[in-house]
Design a protein that fits this description.
The protein is mainly alpha-helical. The chain is built from 21 helices and 4 strands. It folds into 3 domains: 222 residues, Growth Hormone, Chain: A; 64 residues, no CATH class; 194 residues, Growth Hormone, Chain: A (Up-down Bundle), CATH 1.20.1250. The protein has a two-stranded antiparallel ribbon with strand order 1-4.
Amino acid sequence: MKDYDDKTAFLGQCGRFQLINFLLLCASIVPNGIVVFSIVFVADVPSHHCLVPDVNLTQEWRNSTIPNKLSSCSRYRLSVVRNLSAQGLVPGRDVNLTDLEQEGCVDGWSYSKDIYQSTIVTEFDLVCNEQWKQPFTSTVFFLGVLCGSFFSGQISDRFGRKPVLFSAIAIQSVIIVAQIFSPSWTIFCILFFITGIGRISSYVSAFVLGTEILSGKVRVLFSSLGVCVSFAIGYMLLPLFAYFLRDWKSLLFSIFLPTLLYVPLWWVIPESPRWLVTQGRVAEAEAIMRKAARLNKVEAPLVIFEDYTTLVSPEEAMGVLKNAYVSTIHLVRDMFTFSTGYYGLSLNTSRLHADPYISSFMSAAIEIPAYVFIWLALRCLRRKLCLLFTLSVAAVSLFFIQLVPQSLSYLAVALEMLGKFAVTAGASAIYVVTAELYPTVLRNTATGTCSILSRIGGSTAPFLFKLSIYFNYLPYIILGTLAVGSIIALFFLPETFGKPLPQVIQQMPKARRKEEKPV
């Protein structure tokens, strides 16, 4: 059905039906912002040092057991220290400490509780030789997001947006509770992987469902501002929860509780009428439209949709990615850059301020003006121009960080926040472009598929800022370089501004090739 928007124009763009679904779908996004970045607090590394067991040592030797008071992975050999203490020798006066043999933290570690009562780092001792597990925990989550990007899209295009949305919310909620009882780091990671699948499945399904239910400028408002601000609100609530709940298990349980409020929404949020029409379920689509007409207090026509059966076979559906290869490959490049930059800068919030709660809130708060900016820009500017601006600002700000003197640390923070602003705005815009580029029959699959390779960027993001041990500004240089590469890829994307949402494959915008004129 190539004139879906015309057939449903009698509803208007901003009635009671649209308002209810706009608000409810935005509300379903809020927990995603909490879940994604909960790992910032759940897996943070508090100050720690080797545990000194309660043995017969003088106070001088107990205070001197840890070398230089700085080492978190070694101590002086306890048997030697105990022998010297028993002899009445004084460290530093009678004994040269630098000559003493050292050993690892064989009795475990003592963790500071100034900021956290516990994290999974303190629970499973993810320090020293096991410290690689701390950033890898985040990587496991993003690998789950990557996996979910592929499978949830196909399932949603096969069985509908609504069932996948609510199933994903349910799975995510149950698994979060199960994580609280994880007996080991391995079990925690397996469950965290499944949480990643549920997170991206619910996010993409809600995004696509809202994009298909709404129309015109309200659709742009939802996809570029409503969804993103809802995600940012969840992100901003996270440090508030974490501040009052310093134990990682309590924090996870607090994330689970609000999801119970979404159960009644099953009877309020409808299935996508666009999707129902493409599946030949015209009667169901018309029933939803007539209910919407009653809510909006308008008269529905006697026949809204003519009999319709899907025009796309499964083989043709899979073949659309081949037909749109040029668009997809360049779209993936841009999404990879935005994904790496967004999650890399967001997970690096602890470097912005000594207080991780303030750091997290700063990183979340900058997203609100970014989303408002890109919403206003998408209302009246071409999509490629919006992406070009955000990528350029991100590249310049991240490259310039290395030029800031250490005495002007606040300027470096400002540039990083400017980079976060640009990357956040661009990440929002690229999802709008993806939704506008692909037809209804494949929109969820295409959105997920295009996200798959970009999620590799999200998976590597936890390790990105670990590269600063080799060169302090290397992470920023890498992100700036990715932004420049994406600017080049951007020129090959088709323009979708001002065009109706494609319903079938034949309506997809054509990608620009070297021998073609710009669309």
